[in-house]
Specification:
CATH topology of the largest domain: Alpha-D-Glucose-1,6-Bisphosphate, Chain A, domain 3
Number of strands: 21
Radius of gyration: 24 Å
Low-confidence stretches: none
Strand order of the largest sheet: 1-5-4-2-3-6
CATH class of the largest domain: Alpha Beta
Structural class: alpha/beta
CATH architecture of the largest domain: 3-Layer(aba) Sandwich
Mean pLDDT: 94
Largest sheet: 6 strands, mixed
Number of helices: 19
Length: about 575
């Protein structure tokens, strides 16, 4: 390790850092000569992944901090001025969640935009990510920035970029923005205007409640049954995030008076005191929701993540026990509901999911005569594919989802929307109640018609530069030596998406299709230091067979598939 060169880079960064806190942090690391820590902080610049920038808060170019955000925003602003002729009239939306440093990062973002002569439409208070996405289209803005780390732990923050079409950026915008950022001057030389200066020039524009009210009206229009229910009991958690008042108000406006918030998690708190990892998928994250639901005897539990772009759902089964639905199960329910109960309009209905989600939505779409696409992981690909087919073929996008609890119904937003999805799930539950059934009963109806798909995900966290190297080695090993069998099941096809499989853009994903309809997919996370493995098994219930019996058999086969694959992963370099 060239410690002299590393020290020089770190000193130069420290001197250019506009934030006294991260200046002092880096000075302390330098004083202790912690070369491993320094090497990781300067291993690379944070770059746009699945959802823009995201990283641990701290000093250095490989961390989230005010210096990185100021330089990123300057590059984004200059790229916009070079590519969007009317950006200085349309402006850019700036929103934020309630995490640590989100207010400062959002203010820095707006301050850089207005210094570049680009109006900043600024949410003065924290808002859900889908509200920022909605505002792009509602205000006809040229772009938007949402400061959020979504469901990551409290030490993270992030910076999500939307284009003028309301969707997250895709190539070539991400490459062009990254190139523009690389040419930006040191952070302490990036021009800024204060909010007062910006307001005086008419460039800093504080958004009123009108935008939020328009968003609420738009998602209320997504409902299909539209009758609500006086008897359905709902529990809702904001997971210490910003979705609380929005979701509760929307549900009550939709005719659901029996909504009980999880009191301990309803107010925004970037420390996330009741959960280590504020992701509804994580073990223990739903414990307080479950306890509240049992106390009030709720029929359905709805859980947003901290920026309210994801949704988890719990519902009671035939025995009265609450069960957490998987993201794929919620996706299948919403997809089937929208395709069968939605209004019959002009245009071929179109649904979209991702290459790591269940294949069942495709089977449903084909069975119901709808257009269907699988795209790369990340909602930006779902939204942009929907826009592309609508433009070129006249299709009508009605639903999209990814298994990581992300859903959007219709076109109110061009991103996943946990508040809008919660509203439609409640609407669907009321429709089920009117038919004398419940959400899991409806899911069984779908599975008897289209097959029983079960799935699971395993994540291996490998932090730092060394972890990134291990992840690359695992992916390369599976590419170089793909298995012929996984457990007792033959691999029928290998799909290496790095080669642009299926006409999709190249992506670091490998999938093994299995005989009988199963699938194993592996990919590095675009937002966290993880490698992710996705598993799916399809089982066909016998005529008249109780579905719980078929599910038990399917889960056993899925478990064996997972065990067999993890043995292969360890042979290819994954730590035990």
């Amino acid at each position: 390790m060239d410690t002299t060169g590393l020290r020089e880079r770190a000193e130069a960064w420290r001197k250019a850092d506009p934030d006294p806190e991260t200046q002092a942090e880096l000075a302390q690391v330098l004083a202790t000569s912690d070369w491993a820590d320094l090497a990781d902080r300067f291993a690379q610049d944070l770059e746009f992944g699945t959802a823009g920038l995201r990283g641990v808060l701290g000093a250095g170019p490989n961390r989230m901090n005010r210096a990185v955000v100021r330089r990123t925003t300057a590059g984004l602003a200059r790229y916009l001025k070079a590519t969007v002729p009317d950006v200085t009239s349309r402006g850019v939306v700036v929103g934020r969640d309630a995490r640590r440093l989100s207010r400062e990062l959002a203010e820095d973002t707006a301050a850089v935009f207005i210094a570049e002569g680009i109006p900043a439409h600024v949410f003065p208070e924290p808002v859900p990510t889908p509200v920022t996405a909605f505002a792009v289209l509602h205000l006809n803005a040229a772009a938007a920035v949402m400061v959020t780390a979504s469901h990551n732990p409290p030490e993270y923050n992030g910076y999500k970029v939307y284009w003028g079409n309301g969707a997250q950026i895709v190539p070539p915008q991400d490459v062009g923005i990254a190139d523009a950022i690389s040419k930006v001057e040191p952070a302490n030389q990036v021009p800024l205007l204060t909010p007062a200066e910006g307001r005086a020039k008419g460039l800093w524009r504080d958004l009123s409640e009108d935008v939020g009210n328009a968003y609420l009206r738009a998602i209320l229009d997504l409902r299909l049954y539209k009758k609500g229910s006086d008897t359905l009991s709902l529990v809702y958690t904001a997971m210490h995030g910003v979705g609380g008042p929005w979701a509760v108000l929307a549900l009550k406006e939709a005719g659901f008076p029996r909504v009980t918030p999880v009191a301990e998690q309803q107010q925004p708190d970037g420390r996330f005191p009741t959960v280590r990892f504020p992701n509804p998928e994580e073990p223990g994250a739903m414990d307080l929701s479950l306890a509240t639901a049992e106390r009030v005897k709720a029929d359905v539990v709805l859980a947003n993540d901290p920026d309210a772009d994801r949704l988890a759902v719990m519902a009671r089964d035939a025995s009265g026990k609450l069960r957490l639905l998987t993201g794929n199960e919620v996706g299948v329910l919403l997809g089937h509901y929208v395709l069968t109960q939605g209004p019959k309009q002009d245009g071929h209905p179109h649904v979209v999911t991702t290459i790591v989600s269940s294949t069942q939505l495709g089977e449903i779409a084909r069975g119901l005569g709808a257009a269907y696409d699988e795209v790369l992981t990340g909602f930006k690909w779902i939204a942009n594919r929907a826009l592309e087919r609508s433009r070129t073929e006249g299709t009508r996008f009605v639903f999209g989802y990814e298994e990581a609890l992300g859903y959007t119904v219709g076109t109110a937003t061009r991103d996943k929307d946990g508040v809008g999805a919660a509203l439609v799930v409640a609407d669907m539950a009321a429709w089920c109640e009117s038919r004398g059934t419940h959400l899991l009963g409806y899911l069984e109806e779908i599975q008897r018609t289209f097959g029983l798909h079960v799935g699971a995900q395993r994540n291996v966290t490998l932090p730092g530069a060394a972890g990134a190297q291990t992840i690359r080695a695992i992916m390369q090993a599976f590419r170089a030596s793909p298995p012929e069998r996984i457990g007792g099941t033959r691999v029928s096809a290998v799909r290496d998406y790095q080669k642009g499989e299926g006409g999709l853009p190249p992506s670091n994903v490998v999938a093994f299709a299995l005989e009988g309809g199963g699938r194993v997919t592996l990919r590095p996370s675009g937002t966290e230091p993880k490698i992710k493995y996705y598993f799916e098994h399809k089982e066909t219930p016998a005529p008249g067979e109780p579905l719980p019996q078929a599910r038990e058999r399917a889960e056993a086969k899925l478990s064996a598939l997972i065990d067999a694959f993890l043995v292969l992963a360890r042979e290819r370099g994954q730590p035990a």
